[in-house]
Design a protein that fits this description.
The protein has helices spanning 13-26, 44-55, 62-71, 75-86, 92-102, 121-134, 151-156, 196-218, 232-243, and strands at residues 32-37, 58-61, 111-115, 140-145, 158-161, 166-169, 223-227. The protein is of the alpha/beta class and 244 residues long. Strands 2-3-1-4-7 form a five-stranded parallel beta sheet, sandwiched between helices. It has a two-stranded antiparallel sheet with strand order 5-6. The longest helix is centred in the last third of the chain and has 23 residues, at 196-218. The protein is globular and about 50 Å long. The structure holds adenosine-5'-diphosphate and adenosine monophosphate. Adenosine monophosphate (AMP) binds at residues 40, 62-63, 66, 83-84, 87-90, 95, 116-117, 119, 123, 202.
């Protein structure tokens, strides 16, 4: 048998206990395969960690993965950077490839939350093919419905922790210490594309390319529409109702 590279004795007891409790809580959970669709700033990244913990799913956010690739200057990141800076979508093939790979992670055993994917009907069709091969089907699509007018304030006050994708807001969801991630104590950053000018083109591509994806899933009868302009905890309550 190959020797494990992890020495369990070196892991603090509290971490081991927490992992054990997590596994006991997760074992009986049914599988769930979810898609979150909504314009930039509608709250997908805020609700995802809550859904992920409650249902033991992995959170696959193509925007987070692409930003990590851009900052690591990988070939994928170099290809994606220009479109991302302009607020345009990157090519379907690039994102389909990263999602296909990411779904194989052990943390996706109980299912996944797709956040920011699929964003075009072509991506949705490719996802269907991928899932058919795995014998998996999408259970629910959460549509974060919100008026465009609300989004500029959401986007301009957003601060993120790049390593985890955690989102904060100076007014609506401030961190305990300004500019610092609550969990790791690391610095928060503002996204380069979170400006009023880039938001305009991101919204334009949302309405033109992503709105039809909601119609695509509506025909399958699996879309639940949320009132995403409500306060954060009200949206969490709506999500819980839909997924119960
Ligand atoms: P998305 O992932 O859909 O782009 P985020 O979840 O990052 O959006 O939310 C955008 C910003 O709005 C963040 O700064 C977040 O803290 C804040 N936010 C999220 N949900 C709400 C809400 N229901 N009410 C007010 N602010 C919110
Ligand atoms: P997000 O973090 O979801 O706001 O995404 C940031 C940027 O990454 C977008 O403006 C796009 O340039 C790119 N991106 C993320 N997901 C996708 C996707 N599914 N298809 C194409 N481009 C994407």
């Amino acid at each position: 048998m190959a020797s494990s590279s992890v020495n369990l004795e070196e892991i603090p007891s509290e971490s081991l206990m927490n992992e054990l409790l997590r596994r006991m809580k997760c074992a009986p959970k049914p599988e769930k395969h979810l898609i979150l669709i909504g314009p930039p700033g509608s709250g997908k990244g805020t609700q995802s960690p809550i859904i992920k913990d409650e249902h033991c799913l992995c959170h696959l956010a193509t925007g987070d993965m692409l930003r990590a690739a851009v900052s690591a200057k990988t070939p994928l990141g170099i290809k994606a950077k220009e479109s991302m800076d302009k607020g345009e979508l990157v090519s379907d093939d690039l994102v389909v490839g990263i999602i296909d790979e990411a779904m194989k992670k052990p943390s996706c055993k109980k299912g996944f939350i797709l956040d920011g994917f699929p964003r075009t009907v072509a991506q949705a069709q490719k996802l269907d093919e991928m899932l058919e091969r795995q014998g998996v089907k999408i259970d629910k699509v959460l549509d974060f419905a919100i008026d465009d007018a609300v989004l500029e304030e959401r986007i301009s006050g957003r601060w993120i922790h790049p390593a985890s994708g955690r989102s904060y807001h100076t007014k609506f969801a401030p961190p305990r210490v300004p500019g610092v991630d609550d969990v790791t104590g690391e610095s928060l950053i503002q996204r380069k594309d979170d400006t009023a000018a880039v938001l305009k083109s991101r919204l334009e591509s949302f309405h033109r390319q992503t709105q039809p994806v909601i119609n695509y899933y509506s025909k399958k009868g699996i879309v639940a529409t949320l009132h995403a302009e409500k306060p954060l905890s009200d949206v969490t309550d709506e999500v819980r109702k839909v997924l119960s």
